Amino acid sequence: xxxxxxxxxxxxxxxxxxxxxxxxxxxxxxxxxxxxxxxxxxxxxxxxxxxxxxxxxxxxxxxxxxxxxxxxxxxxxxxxxxxxxxxxxxxxxxxxxxxxxxxxxxxxxxxxxxxxxxxxxxxxxxxxxxxxxxxxxxxxxxxxxxxxxxxxxxxxxxxxxxxxxxxxxxxxxxxxxxxxxxxxxxxxxxxxxxxxxxxxxxxxxxxxxxxxxxxxxxxxxxxxxxxxxxxxxxx
Length: 235
Prior knowledge:
Order of helices and strands: EHEHEEHHHHHHH
Number of helices: 9
CATH architecture of the largest domain: Up-down Bundle
CATH topology of the largest domain: Glutathione S-transferase Yfyf (Class Pi), Chain A, domain 2
Distance between the termini: 33 Å
Largest sheet: 4 strands, mixed
Number of domains: 2
Strand order of the largest sheet: 2-1-3-4
Radius of gyration: 18 Å
Shape: globular
Structural class: alpha+beta
CATH class of the largest domain: Mainly Alpha
Helix content: 40-55%
């Protein structure tokens, strides 16, 4: 019998990436909320699992010794190899999967995350400055890359895979970041098609009662965004 995976999570696009895979594979897991607004990502216990102080992270108990994995790309790769699902087995397919997986963690994810920061967390008077405009352009550039990739294909790499799971959450919230998908019809179609999957719906609803209902307080801003080199980074 497969032992439940410890899933360290908070309801954000980064958390959804791994939640989608767990739900798609029907893997048993134990949800462990990490309240990033309260600084729970900086506890020594979580640091031992995720050295960069960021969620999501997992501990897989299905082996002789527990295995901890941090960073969403690494977690998805671990789960794909564990289950033999949602990743191509042939050499070319695996190569393309890794290319697009690394593209997301090095391009789309960071650009979208920075845009989200300036859209949702920047102090009043700084929300529409140079930084936000730069990240809107970068986010839109990534949308154009995705648009070209989806021309003539349903999914980013062959069949539905971990690449779609890792890229989709930051596209889901495009409108909330004041970016229209009207210029990206392939992306809009892909976004809509994945959103209709029951496992994806369950993943996005996971912990929805924990979502922020109001702007961050000054203390939450301090915790999230004012760490020094000795305190770690925001989640």
